[in-house]
Amino acid sequence: MKLSSKLKEIKERGDTLKEKLSAISKELEKFNDYIKSHLKEFDTSHPISYYTVTLANLYEKQGYIEDAIFVYKKILEKEPDNKEAIEGLKRCNKLKEQV
């Protein structure tokens, strides 16, 4: 089942907000595990095009700050002027300092 359809299913259930958030969190955890397992399949001798701001944002929103920082840095190695990656890296570094 696609993540979007699973999230829609959770939204439509009669659960409490806390139950819905818990279910969404579990689905995002599964999605994160899926992403991590499939990143290993890429041939690392090719350009790092599979590191995207979207991936970094997902890590950041799920609280995987170190992973988000890693991806933002990889993006900036290839695109040093990428404003989204620069801002994301700044946010993550601030979050990392707060912990």
- The fraction of residues assigned to DSSP E strands is under 5%
Point out poorly predicted stretches.
none
- The helicity comes to over 70%
Query: What is the CA-based Rg, rounded?
Result: 16 Å
Largest sheet: none
State mean pLDDT (0 to 100 scale): 82
Structural class: mainly alpha
Count of helices? Answer: 5
> How many discrete domains?
2
Task: Give the CA-based shape.
Answer: elongated
Summarize the structure in words.
By secondary structure, this protein is mostly helical. The chain folds into 2 domains: 41 residues; 55 residues, no CATH class. It has 5 helices and no strands. α3 packs parallel to α5.
Brief summary of the model shown:
The chain has 99 residues and is mostly helical. Helix content is 73%, strand content 0%.
Keywords, please?
99 residues; mainly alpha; 2 domains; elongated
Produce the secondary structure layout.
Elements: H1 3-12, H2 17-39, H3 53-61, H4 65-78, H5 83-98
